[in-house]
Specification:
The complex is a heterodimer of chains A (about 325) and B (about 280). Chain A has 13 helices and twelve strands. Chain A is of the alpha/beta class. In chain A, the strands form two sheets. In chain A, strands 2-1-3-4-6-5-10 form a seven-stranded mixed beta sheet, with helices on both faces. Chain A has a five-stranded mixed beta sheet with strand order 7-9-8-11-12, with helices on both faces. In chain A, helix 2 runs parallel beside helix 8 and helix 9 crosses helix 13. The two termini of chain A are about 30 Å apart. In chain B, the strands form three sheets. In chain B, strands 2-3-4-8-7 form a five-stranded parallel beta sheet, with helices on both faces. In chain B, a hairpin with a 2-residue loop joins strand 5 (about 185) and strand 6. Chain B has about 280 residues and is α/β, with parallel strands linked by helices. The chains are: A alpha/beta (about 325), B alpha/beta (about 280). At the A-B interface, helix 4 and helix 6 of A face helix 5 and helix 6 of B.
Chain lengths: ~325, ~280
């Protein structure tokens, strides 16, 4: 599962155009769906290029609904479109398309249970230099708390493409968390299938399990490779769907390995770590460490450095594993 | 002998009277509720459901039906009553208003037959209505979308995002109706946060506006028959109404925006409306 097919000759057209950016892969996949299905429409909140919808706009101009910088309106309109049988994909910046339009999202989309897919770009601290107004570190907690909602966090552009196509078979609202204007390392194959709600075990191991999502899947694999050199055999699970949460691999990890470390680019409240802890507290109390954003607003800075400052990195995940296992860092 | 028009209007007046009785019936069953804004909207709703809207109560999901969204969702007693009178469900369901697991709570729920959108949070309905109107346009369907807004509700900024967008998109198949009863929960609208000049605001946003007496059935019918007011703009109907209309003790008072409905209140309300048939 973890091998990456990077053969440029065989790669489909979308791979190059997505340029390892999940936000662009989402827009390309929506365009692909629009070509297949005349009921697919996109709603943009001045986010045509952010989300890679320029091509859809050129090919199907009537099906690109631009509402301007007005996320509340975008969400309400998407709900109304869905009631008529259309398949709206509403796109925006993660901090705004969740928090700014939260009541529309809750009432018009989730409560009314409309088939709306939300593409949320620039999530986490992908806009690190933009500061706290533009960081989205609570979006997963907000979305997880809404009944009827499916919450997907693709690990890379390839998975974003497949996850977006897979929404074709889902009912009700779907939230897809996407990255910013930076390349994301590829950790899943170009040719792959995703089952929404079914996690992927990327690496087997018996000493400890790292359950990661989104931007922290690559650092989790990096940490597992480092730990292997220390004789620690870490399992790595890509929990690309936070809701519905895939129980089996979590319970298996709790039963079969020496503890669980979760890793996410999100506050430690209410995201992946919270979801895993809620399940384990009920069904299999286990020792855990949680890697993510502590209860504070992040500093300004380049994304990698800001992530690293709060331990959201391969190094931070490795340190959490060693702490969990009662092992010390190797001497440098 | 009555002319056809006068007979039609007389029928609508009787339907509106029965609607007011049914509003009180639901609120009495609930023990309390939003009588003020339900009664102010009653004549408009009677004309919508018994004259204007193309609907099939025995087929609530009929694809070609006109869409009506009650954005001022707290007037659900009026919506529930008019849906019951139209035949979407039995009038006896009004006796379960606010009941445990009832389809009919304080605010409309899309799960109830005839309800097009769950509303209640204010400032939501117009954006949803835009989506419906666009949905019709994109699919080449000719159903119309009407959204009823409260006046106090217009204090929510989301309405103005929607107003701007609907005009920008030239949605002639979208109509908004303002139930302008001039009273909100804590007092007169103009004292809480004034809307004047309301018609000019909408015109400036690009809507074609008409104003009527929202209790004059003839004027209401004419205003609906004249839709759309412009070929390339959304239409706005400002209906000047009286909060609590038909119950003298409740008219024009914010104390009857929402209040308890005791047996005595219920009796007084029905007495004022005249005996039920």
């Amino acid at each position: 599962m973890s091998t990456v097919d990077d053969d440029p000759v065989a790669a489909p057209d979308w791979v190059g155009r997505a340029a390892n950016q999940s936000r662009l892969a989402f827009g390309l996949a929506v365009t692909e769906l629009a070509a297949r299905d005349s009921s697919v429409v996109a709603v943009s909140a001045d986010t045509l290029d952010l989300i890679g919808l320029r091509d859809l706009s050129d090919r199907f101009p009537e099906r690109l609904i631009e509402v301007g910088i007005a996320e509340q309106n975008a969400m309400g309109i998407a709900s109304g479109l869905a009631t008529t049988g259309l398949r709206p994909f509403v796109c925006g910046y993660a901090p705004f398309i969740t928090a700014r339009s939260l009541e529309q999202l809750r009432n018009d989309v989730a409560y009314a249970n409309q088939r709306v897919v939300i593409g949320a770009a620039a999530s986490g601290i992908s806009l690190g230099v933009a500061g706290g107004t533009h960081h989205a570190l609570e979006d997963l907690a907000l979305m997880r708390a809404l009944p009827n909602m499916t919450v997907v966090v693709p690990a890379d552009a390839h998975q974003a493409w497949h996850a977006t196509l897979a929404t074709e078979h889902l009912d009700g609202p779907v939230y897809i968390r996407l990255g910013g204007r930076v390349e994301e390392p590829a950790v899943t194959p170009v040719v792959a299938s995703i089952r929404i709600g079914q996690a992927d075990v990327l690496r087997d191991g018996s000493d400890v399990t790292v359950i990661a999502c989104g931007a922290l899947v690559a650092p989790a694999l990096e940490a597992a490779a480092d730990l292997s050199a220390q004789g620690i055999d870490a399992r790595v699970v890509n929990m690309h769907t936070l809701k519905p949460l895939d129980r089996d691999p979590i319970l298996a990890a709790a039963a079969e390995t020496g503890g669980i470390v979760t890793a996410e680019e999100h506050h430690l409240t209410g995201g992946l770590g919270g979801a895993v802890a809620e399940l384990l507290a009920r069904e299999h109390p286990s020792r855990m460490r949680m890697v993510g954003m502590p209860d504070e607003f992040a500093v300004v800075g380049p994304t990698d450095r800001v992530r690293d400052r709060y331990g959201m990195s391969g190094r931070g995940i490795r340190a959490a594993v060693l702490d969990l296992l009662g092992r010390s860092e190797p001497l440098a | 002998m009555l002319s056809n028009r006068e007979a039609k209007l007389q029928g609508l007046r009787e339907a509106a009277l029965r609607l007011r009785r049914n509003i009180w019936r639901a609120l009495h069953a609930a023990g309390s509720g939003h009588m003020g804004g339900s009664l102010s909207a009653a004549d408009l709703l009677a004309a919508l459901y018994f004259h204007h809207l193309a609907i099939r109560p025995d087929q609530p999901d009929w694809p070609a039906r006109d869409r009506f969204v009650l954005s001022k969702g707290h007037a659900n007693a009026a919506l529930a009553a008019v849906l019951a009178q139209s035949g979407f469900f039995d009038e006896s369901l009004l006796d379960d208003f606010y009941g445990f697991e009832s389809l009919l709570g304080m605010h409309p729920d899309i799960k109830a037959p005839g309800v097009e959108m769950s509303t209640g949070g204010l400032g939501h309905g117009l954006a949803v209505g835009i989506g419906m109107a666009l949905g019709a346009q994109l699919q080449g369907r000719d159903f119309r979308t009407l959204v009823m807004l409260g006046d106090g509700e217009l204090q929510e900024g989301s309405n103005w995002e929607a107003a701007m967008a609907a005009a920008h998109m030239g949605l002639a198949n979208l109509t908004a109706i303002v139930d302008f009863n001039k009273i909100q929960q804590s007092g007169p609208v103009k004292a809480v946060l004034g809307l004047d000049p309301l018609a000019d605001k909408w015109r400036a946003f690009g809507w074609e506006v008409r104003e009527i007496d929202g209790h004059d059935i003839g004027a209401i019918v004419d205003a609906f028959d004249a839709l759309p007011y412009a070929p390339d703009k959304p239409s706005l109907l400002i209906a000047h109404t009286v909060k609590g209309k038909g119950a003298g003790f409740a008219e024009d008072s914010h104390l009857w925006h929402v209040n308890a409905v005791t047996d005595e209140v219920y009796r007084n309300a029905l007495d004022e409306l005249g005996d039920a048939q």
